[in-house]
């Protein structure tokens, strides 16, 4: 994150996207970057995203996650993520 002396309006929010469908991840990532100017990190593998999140948890404000995935469902991912960032907000994206 940017230093504490920078006002929150000057900081760019970071969002993490998790979905096992590569096309869905790509569309969401592009829309958020182009239209809303967020820093967006996208993963199709929940285990890989969780490893990334453990190291970078404090920079994220929102996780957009698929609920049904083969390796780990969205609810499991949220429980594990909350251990590293209690302020984190989640949005389920399931079809």
Percent helix among the residues? 25-40%
| Average pLDDT, all residues | 80
The gross shape turns out to be globular
The stretches of 5 or more residues where confidence is low (pLDDT under 50) are: 1-11
Structural class: alpha/beta
Q: Secondary-structure element order, as H and E?
A: EHEHEHE
Alpha-carbon distance between the two ends: 33 Å
Biggest sheet strand order reads: 2-1-3-4
Largest sheet: 4 strands, parallel
Oligomer: single chain
Instruction: Classify the beta-strand content into a percent band.
Output: 15-25%
Annotation, overall tally of beta strands: 4
Number of discrete helical segments: 3
Structure write-up:
37% of the residues lie in helices and 21% in strands. The chain has 95 residues and is α/β, with parallel strands linked by helices. The protein has a 4-stranded parallel sheet, with helices on both faces. It is globular. It starts with 13 loop residues before the first strand and ends with a strand.
Architecture blueprint of SSEs:
Layout: E1 14-18, H1 22-36, E2 39-43, H2 46-56, E3 60-65, H3 74-82, E4 89-92
Parallel strand pairs: 1-2, 1-3, 3-4
Question: Main attributes?
Answer:
alpha/beta, 3 helices, 95 residues, disordered N terminus, 21% strand, single chain, globular, 4-stranded parallel sheet
Summarize the structure.
The protein is α/β, with parallel strands linked by helices.
